[in-house]
Amino acid sequence: MRVEQQPGFVLHARPYRETSLLVECLTRDHGRIGVVARGVRNERARMQRAQLEPFQRLELDLLLKGELATLRGAEPSGAVMRLVGDAGLAGLYLNELVVRLTGRQDPNPELFAHYERTLRRMAAGEPLAWTLRRFERDMLDALGYALQLDVDARSGEPLDPATRYVYDPEAGASPGRSGDPHALRGADLLALAEDRSPDAAGLSSLRRMMRQVIAFHLGGGELRAWRVLR
Predict the structure, then answer these.
(1) Which of 2, 51, 56, 90 has the fewest CB atoms lying closer than 10 Å?
(2) What is the torsional sign of CA 93, 96, 102, 108?
(3) Pairing of the two strands 31-37 and 68-76
């Protein structure tokens, strides 16, 4: 099947055979696709390889057959999003997260929109910690793993902002024991639910919670980007 002018982003690329690359792309209409970019490691093909950089929206022409697609063309679309320093590391974290939590050829336009919006926020210099928490929340929702952030999982009552809770990836939030290092304030969970950035302590608590939730959905695994960001 020919796919033309498909909006997409490069998530990861690695050498494939002698002169090619195997590129993981997130596309708007076909989800994550493994793409063989033939011959782009040749000296004469440097310009084409340079177009396959992360964080640049592309219009992709593909020949989709079986599990892998063949790249037939790639053209930049829109302004280049420059992610440098910590923003660049955060972008690599986004890419690894998408690769690890999604299956190939599972269309998810909502996830594509969240991903592109997050890159734009980072390129614009918005606070990274809050930007990442928003993406993690929205990505889990788009994948069918929505977080329950405003209701006590035991009682069914609204969360109390002053109470400390522990978050179970399968059940949701329930009151934590005094001194539990994994407990976080109800106010922080409610802030995430209402798309309001909490204070620095709240962002730190949400970061720990999100890592626990993501590790659960990875089957107990860990992302390499966590070690780098640490």
Answers:
(1) 2
(2) positive
(3) parallel
